[in-house]
Amino acid sequence: MRSKKTVLERFNEKVFVPFGSPVDNCHIWMAAKKKKEGYGKLNNGIDTNWILAHRVSYELFVGPIPAGLHVLHACDTPACVNPAHLFLGTQADNMRDMKAKGRSKAGQYNAAKTHCPQGHEYTPENTLPVKPGQGRKCRACAYKKKAS
C-alpha cells in the first residue's frame, strides 16, 4: 500500500524556487490558485476544503498563526510562499500596508484626481497637509467652511 504524502511533501512539490538565493527570491506557488487574487491554495488532504498556500508555508516554516491574525506578504506577490517574505498582522495592518504601497484601488483613483469636488485644483499651495493615509484637503474649501 502506498503511504500518504505529508503536507510538507505535497507543499514542496508545488513550489518553484528560482535560481539564486532562496531567501531573496519569491518562491512561487505553481499549483491551484484563487482565480481573481492569484493566491496559491492547497487541499487540506482531509476533505474538499482548501487552505491558502502562504498560510501553510508560514505554519510549516515559521510557526502557528494566532487567532485573528493574517499572513501578509512583504513582497506583494500573491503566489509567493517564501516564509522570509511573510509576516503576521491584523486586517487593519493589511489595509494600511496595501494603501502605503499604492495597491488600494480607492487610493489610485483618488490620487489621480486633479481637482476637489468643488472644482478647485489640487496644487501645493491649495492642498492642506493631513495625516498619512488620510488623503488630502482643499485649502480653499477648508477656508470657505471655516468662514461660514
Main features:
148 residues, alpha+beta, Homing Intron 3 (I-Ppo) Encoded Endonuclease, Chain A, 2 domains, two-stranded antiparallel sheet, 5 helices, 8 strands, elongated
Describe it.
About 15% of the residues are buried. The protein is built from five helices and eight strands; from the N terminus they run αββββαββααββα. The protein has a two-stranded antiparallel ribbon with strand order 1-2. It has a two-stranded antiparallel sheet with strand order 3-4. The protein has helices spanning about 5-10, 55-60, 90-100, 105-110, 140-145, and strands spanning about 15, 30, 40-45, 50, 70-75, 85-90, 125-130, 135-140. With about 150 residues, it is an alpha+beta fold.
Short description:
It contains five helices and eight strands. With 148 residues, the protein is α+β, with helices and mostly antiparallel strands. Strand 7 (127-128) and strand 8 form a beta hairpin.
Describe the protein's topology:
Blueprint: H1 7-12, E1 15-16, E2 28-29, E3 41-43, E4 50-52, H2 53-61, E5 70-73, E6 86-89, H3 91-100, H4 105-111, E7 127-128, E8 137-138, H5 139-147
Antiparallel strand pairs: 1-2, 3-4, 5-6, 7-8
Proportion of strand residues: 5-15%
Largest sheet: 2 strands, antiparallel
Provide mean pLDDT, rounded: 84
What is the share of helical residues? 25-40%
Radius of gyration: 22 Å
The count of DSSP E runs of length 2 or more, i.e. the number of strands, is: 8
Distance between the termini: 83 Å
Uncertain spans: none
CATH C-level class of the largest domain is Alpha Beta
Shape annotation: elongated
CATH architectural group of the largest domain = Alpha-Beta Complex
Query: Strand-and-helix sequence, N→C?
Result: HEEEEHEEHHEEH
CATH topology of the largest domain: Homing Intron 3 (I-Ppo) Encoded Endonuclease, Chain A
Number of helices: 5
Number of domains: 2
